[in-house]
Structure prediction request, 584 residues.
Amino acid sequence: MDPHLLATFVAVARHGSFSAAAAELGYTQSAISQQIAALEADLGLVLLSRRPVEPTPAGARLLEHAGPLLLRLRAARADVLRAAAPPRHRLRLAATALAVNPVLAARLALARAEQPRLEVSLHIGDRARIGAMVAEGEADLGLADGIAAPSDPLRLPDTGPMTAAGVTEAALVVALPAGHPLAGRASLRLADLADARWLQTPLCPLERLRDLVGEGFRAGLDYQGDDVYTVVNLVAAGHGLTLLPVSALPGASAGPVRGVALAFPRLVHRVELLHGALPPGPAADLARVLSG
Amino acid sequence: MDPHLLATFVAVARHGSFSAAAAELGYTQSAISQQIAALEADLGLVLLSRRPVEPTPAGARLLEHAGPLLLRLRAARADVLRAAAPPRHRLRLAATALAVNPVLAARLALARAEQPRLEVSLHIGDRARIGAMVAEGEADLGLADGIAAPSDPLRLPDTGPMTAAGVTEAALVVALPAGHPLAGRASLRLADLADARWLQTPLCPLERLRDLVGEGFRAGLDYQGDDVYTVVNLVAAGHGLTLLPVSALPGASAGPVRGVALAFPRLVHRVELLHGALPPGPAADLARVLSG
DNA sequence: GGTGCTTACGCAGCACGTAATAATC
DNA sequence: GATTATTACGTGCTGCGTAAGCACC
Prediction:
């Protein structure tokens, strides 16, 4: 179970071809063939069916393990190196689309005011990408958002040993078209909206709602992006409802979308700060300021 | 970051000696020295101070990663092999001390009645041990218990990719000495008992309570065992209070210990079934019966 | 001076590339 | 017959053990 062989196996499975994997990894086809043979001999199992090259059931099982395993290996390396590296002034901050809310944007401004030498670049990605970037040292700090019960941690995908701490929790509202029959209510229960049509978005995945409340929440439009502007416009046009942090709704009073407070279950929009080793220095200072 | 070198590094750090690690691993001192040198050269960091042999800060950081990493590697191997192995009739069941409650004991009896050929051995250990046993294939199934909010998963230590599913949830009671002023109450709020003295036990760790409720919960006696008989006797003798599943309290009415229902926060004693790959066979059948 | 880590050196095994072979489309 | 995996074989490198060296107790 040499990680080197595991990486080769993953590449072959991804390409569905020994030669393509060889090209990617800078080996000859022959070397790849020998590596796969070695891995199969080690486990005593056939991992790939040839022609076409596809994982066998055992190979598929191994594939599920291999990715996270290799990520953790890279993450461990990055973490140890980062802990020992000299402090950096050029910090990379990775965040999901809704994570940089007004509070955190203000804290970031505060940190930059306090440390004039600090340079920050901000990178947006999905949750798994944020986790992987922080784990592998591509980002110094990460901010991930999600829907959770108050003071409950987010259920982030396991990307290795790193620290995740909640930094902000904000009220969630149901985003409804202004003309919606329920748009005038002071508050709503999620269960009352189980029969409505909902947007399926990364910001508010419907299976999460079903987890929390139960059946229902039919998918309307499936939006595979993460910018709030589009989502709001989709809601306004009646493609479906969604949950948003109150700060994400535009122009409080007028406008084509209404936000109605969520009375039950009690849910919040939670943002967590992710980081690995933080030796004293700008990164640790920024983490402190962002934590409030 | 060859896992082989990582394992050597862990052994050296554990023994505080190159030669002792060499003896354990079946190498010469020289080989160990070269392996550590290779690892240090790879990372560009000194991982161990020599004479005495102790981890440097960077080495300590690496040690935190190395254990889980190596566990995951063994777990992945065990999981793939298990998925491909022929079905076994001799099953090993690993459980924490409070996990085999009346419901699960009955389900286990049911499974044995349904499958006369089934042989089961039951092994008790702490949570981390249970997780590791299941991950590495030393046990076919695991049962772990803990305190959680209703239908919330337990926060089990990460021991790699395996399935954890709740199987039972039972009411929790506060165990009080019969003479305790509050022993007559119909129910109690945990916050009202924050000023009392509590047993510190693996079954009911006080930091978990502080997590859920807040400050307080002074530690009385620290009991580092996990048998309920002793715990009950310690409570009766006034060493401190503790939370137990209602089924763990002896003889409902009389006796030196009273159990009082927990009104708030709503907490349950939850048991989760852990397993890796489960190909059709006795192990999968047993898992199905245990799940109810 | 003894214990214990490091360095030097030689050898064996292994993993790669080249090239020939076999198998599938 | 073209493409692609496997097998055969030669080579260079890596990693081990033996043994000498060196440092700290």
About this structure: Residues 17-19, 29-30, 32-34, 36-37, 50-51, 53 of chain B lie near DNA strand C (CB under 10 Å from a C1'). Chain B touches chain A at residues 1-3, 43-45, 57-58, 61-62, 64-66, 68-69, 72-73, 75-77, 79-81, 83-84, 152, 158, 160-161, 277 (CB under 8 Å).
